[in-house]
Amino acid sequence: MAHKVKKAAKVLSQRQIAEGIFDMWLETTIAGDVKPGQFVGVYPVNKSTLLPRPISICEVDKERSAIRLVYRVVGSGTAEFALYEPGDFIMILGPLGNGFPIEKAAGKNVVVIGGGIGVPPLLETAKRLSMETGDNKPDSVSGVMGYRNSDGFLFDEFKEYAQMHMATEDGSAGVKGNVIDAMRQDQVKCDVIFACGPMPMLRGIKAYAEEIGAKAYLSLEERMACGVGACLGCITKTKEIDHHSKVHNARICTDGPVFDADDLDM
Ligand SMILES: Cc1cc2nc3c(=O)[nH]c(=O)nc-3n(C[C@H](O)[C@H](O)[C@H](O)COP(=O)(O)OP(=O)(O)OC[C@H]3O[C@@H](n4cnc5c(N)ncnc54)[C@H](O)[C@@H]3O)c2cc1C
Ligand code: FES
Question: How many secondary structure helices (H) and strands (E) does the chain include?
Answer without folding.
Answer: 6, 16
